[in-house]
């Protein structure tokens, strides 16, 4: 039995490393996961075109789905899985590659068990967050990123309790700049982020009022300061972009707004090393294919 699912990346409105509360929105860059069930009881993961990538997250995610649901799906005896991801989201770039990989794997595993409709999306998402904590790839669990990728739209969450505080569908274009470096969330300086907690509380207030653009921009300056990323890309997008921020724990930056504004920002960001992409925001989240 085989299953397959596709999950989108996300950009940041509020980084949760300061207060445990975070906010993110889905964007149109995707990770596909395929899960093939086996009877050998082993779970083995591979990442297409990245033989050196750490497969712990997707393996733990498939294991948790099998532990939780294989019996309900009517499977007896040892059940294993071969999991494979294929992704256009750069890894450890701040664009929630880990959340997309976990969500796509969780839904593909449920698809392989033929029980996708019996499990709430948000529960499948929480299972991916558990896997991320177990695999040690996250600071807070990143339920903000994972919920945006699973449900689409913008979400605001409490990552301490994995609670969804708000979700809304937005219709922006997003411009994504990714420098040629990686920054793993598990290595981020949480103590430095906690110093900007008063600003994070303000960003949360703005986000819960639906003022996502302003929220993002305040988040951008606060977390560029805390995590020591340059503010140049933020200034190059202002004052015209609706919002601009460091995404996740960096090194990518995401600006939102209308297409004409973002085209102008793109020209400025194009002078920097790395890649700049104009993408749509996504309201539909993770889905089986
Ligand atoms: N396509 C993928 N397939 C399998 N595992 C992946 C994939 N993408 C990311 N991961 C897992 O997630 C880890 C990177 O997680 P990390 O949170 O640092 O990156 P990110 O999610 O891109 O960044 P951020 O949380 O700042 O947006 C990788 O080491 C790997 O374990
Ligand atoms: O690992 C984590 O807990 C997180 C990583 C970043 O993406 C943050 O933006 C997110 O809010 C939390």
UniProtKB/TrEMBL annotation:
Catalytic reaction(s) noted: shikimate + ATP = 3-phosphoshikimate + ADP + H(+)
GO cellular component: cytoplasm
Location within or outside the cell: Cytoplasm
Enzyme class label: transferase
GO molecular function terms listed in the Swiss-Prot or TrEMBL record: ATP binding; shikimate kinase activity
Recorded metabolic or biological pathway in which this protein acts: Metabolic intermediate biosynthesis; chorismate biosynthesis; chorismate from D-erythrose 4-phosphate and phosphoenolpyruvate: step 5/7
Family annotation (InterPro entries): GHMP_kinase_N_dom, Ribosomal_Su5_D2-typ_SF, Ribsml_uS5_D2-typ_fold_subgr, SK_arc
Domain of life: Archaea
Tagged with keyword Transcription regulation: no
UniProt-annotated binding residues for ATP: 90-100
UniProt keyword annotations, A-Z: Amino-acid biosynthesis, Aromatic amino acid biosynthesis, ATP-binding, Cytoplasm, Kinase, Nucleotide-binding, Transferase
Broad class of the protein's primary localization: cytoplasm
Domain GHMP kinase N-terminal: start-end pairs: 57-153
EC code: 2.7.1.71
Gene Ontology terms: biological process: amino acid biosynthetic process; aromatic amino acid family biosynthetic process; chorismate biosynthetic process
Matches recorded under NCBIfam families: Shik_kin_archae
Family statement drawn from the similarity comment of this UniProt entry: Belongs to the GHMP kinase family. Archaeal shikimate kinase subfamily.
Name assigned to this protein: Shikimate kinase
Organism: Natronococcus jeotgali DSM 18795
Name of the gene: aroK
């Amino acid at each position: 039995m085989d299953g397959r699912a596709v999950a989108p990346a996300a950009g940041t409105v509020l980084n949760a490393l300061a207060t445990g509360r975070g906010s993110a929105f889905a964007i149109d860059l995707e990770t596909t996961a395929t899960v093939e069930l086996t009877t050998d009881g082993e779970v083995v993961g591979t990442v297409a075109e990245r033989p050196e990538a750490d497969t712990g997250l997707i393996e733990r995610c498939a294991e948790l789905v099998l532990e939780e649901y294989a019996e309900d799906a009517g499977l007896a005896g040892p059940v294993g899985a071969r999991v494979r991801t294929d992704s256009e989201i750069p890894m450890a770039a701040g664009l929630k590659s880990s959340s997309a990989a976990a969500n796509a794997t969780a839904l593909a595993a449920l698809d392989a068990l033929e029980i996708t409709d019996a499990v709430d999306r948000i529960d499948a998402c929480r299972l991916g967050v558990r896997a991320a904590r177990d695999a040690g790839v996250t600071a807070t669990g990143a339920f903000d990123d994972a919920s945006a990728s699973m449900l689409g739209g913008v979400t605001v969450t409490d990552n301490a309790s994995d609670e969804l505080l708000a979700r809304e569908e937005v219709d922006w274009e997003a411009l994504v700049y990714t420098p040629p470096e990686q920054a793993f969330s598990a290595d981020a300086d949480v103590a430095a982020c906690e110093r900007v907690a008063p600003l994070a509380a303000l960003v949360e207030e703005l986000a819960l009022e639906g003022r996502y653009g302003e929220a993002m921009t305040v988040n951008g300056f606060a977390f560029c300061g805390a995590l020591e990323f340059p503010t140049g890309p933020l200034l190059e997008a202002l004052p015209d972009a609706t919002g601009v921020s460091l995404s996740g724990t960096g090194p990518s930056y995401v600006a939102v707004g209308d297409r004409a504004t973002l085209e102008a920002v793109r020209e400025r960001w194009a002078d920097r090393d790395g890649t700049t992409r104009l993408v749509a925001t996504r309201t539909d989240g993770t889905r089986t294919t």
